[in-house]
Amino acid sequence: MKNSYDVIVIGGGPAGCMAAGLVAESGLSTLLLERESVPRFHIGESLMPECYWPLQRLGMIDRMNASKFTRKKSVQFVGASGKESAPFYFTQHDPRESSTTWQVERAEFDRMLFERAGELGAECHDRTRVLDVLLDENQAARGVKVRTTEGQTLEIDARVIMDGSGLQALIANKLSLREDMPNLQKAAIWAYYKNAKRDDGDNAGATIVMHTLEKDSWFWFIPLSDDVTSIGCVGDSDYMVKTGLDSEARYNLELSRCPGLASRLEDAERVSKIHVAKEYSYSTRQHSGQGWVLIGDAFGFIDPLYSSGVYFALVMGERAADAVIEGFRKNDLSAQQLGNWCENFKSGSQLIKKLVEAFYTKEFSFGGFIRDNPQFGGNLTDLLIGRIFYDGAEKIFDQMDPAIEEAQQASPMQ
């Protein structure tokens, strides 16, 4: 490693690789640092169809199509009784190639992105831990302190730091910018299975979202390659991990309470340990500063429900990269310049947050809402595929917000 770069990108996930690849391609000297050994395990395996466009810009579509990743053409929802909705087939909404997406093993997917960033000119180092982001007295970034693979501690200068450090959130924690989402304090417990039963045809690769009895939790069902399926349970953190049951017992109890999974797991075998993540939903109150910008989960994370995490990471990496490239061209690396994309991004991502909150409202039924308001079917599918950055994407909530309020008022639990 040199002792100075134009841009240092922290984190070798989708946001960091996207950002590093694009800024390096523009001619800026770029250092990409990942603390783990690449490839490394990560959750977040289901891609929204709109991932197609940032992946296309990065030159990844042919590689994705040549991969063994499961093709995802639909999503489906299963109620607490086990009743299945009709699948949402993306191509019925948009017949273009972009409507077929992927269920990915993140170790392999992130490795492909990491290598692509290197091909585009970024200097990429894994097993290199960023110990600190160095700020001056005005909280302007000036570099990082790292521990190398060989155990050396170095300080490296940079004019811009792009923080894609994930839930470690180096800058946000250093500057106390993190704000938890009190109504989304969830926990996830998941494992991997062989031979779980999948549907036939175009729904074989579907992400399936299944409620448990009483809607106390929900399961994801994500078909991966080699007949492995990711099956995870999400619920309130207090319910999932703070009730006296260990994670294994809680997971097995919720499995027994999920009618939609019973037939799918009749011949299945669990092939992994139990994994747990908790209280991961948060936002940040400031997203950029002089010489620094937050991207990916370091910017914030909503919820795994609609598989928006990787898509948001790619979009943030792309938009932040464009802001950085323009900033160097204009010799303006201010907070305003590096974060000029943030408000538009937040406006779009808020629609997914509202959709998540609607799902967690026990009294509300999406199926009933669409039956009563069929004119919003296309709008809802737009949100499910990630098409959220256009005027009018929010229109569904003009009717959904009062419908949720009416359902809550009519509920005998009130």
From TrEMBL:
InterPro entries: FAD/NAD-bd_sf, Flavin-dep_Halogenase_NPB, Flavin_halogenase. Its EC number is 1.-.-.-. The keyword Oxidoreductase applies. Gene3D superfamilies: FAD/NAD(P)-binding domain. Keywords: Oxidoreductase. The keyword Oxidoreductase applies. Pfam families: Trp_halogenase (PF04820). GO terms for molecular function: monooxygenase activity. It comes from the Bacteria. It is an enzyme of class 1 (oxidoreductase). This is FAD-dependent oxidoreductase LodB. The lineage of its organism: Bacteria, Pseudomonadati, Planctomycetota, Planctomycetia, Pirellulales.
